[in-house]
Structure to design on (87 residues):
């Protein structure tokens, strides 16, 4: 499993993500924030509360999270960004 070790908020609903193996990159979520778990993240204050949980997943206080393996594939260029949202 690819573990996220650092995440920070970029401009306009983007995240800058770094993995344990040094792979890093940006993920644009601006068009992906819909549905009961992710729509609340349109609130910039809530979106800014992103963190990494004990399992190396990107998550927010409302329970939304992003699958680390899908993020890794997206950032490394081995998958389409539509696979990023987990919850």
């Amino acid at each position: 499993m690819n573990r996220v070790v650092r995440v920070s908020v970029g401009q306009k609903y983007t995240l800058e993500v770094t993995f344990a193996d040094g792979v890093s990159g940006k993920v644009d979520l601006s068009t992906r924030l819909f549905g009961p778990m992710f729509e609340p993240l349109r609130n910039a204050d809530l979106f800014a509360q992103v963190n990494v949980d004990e399992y190396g997943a990107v998550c927010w206080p409302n329970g939304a999270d992003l699958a680390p393996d899908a993020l890794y594939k997206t950032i490394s260029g081995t998958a389409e960004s539509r696979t990023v949202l987990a919850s």
Remarks:
- The first strand starts at residue 4 and ends at 9.
- The chain has one domain: 4-82.
- Residues 4-82 form a domain with the NE0471 N-terminal domain-like fold (CATH 3.30.2020.10).
- The mean pLDDT is 90.
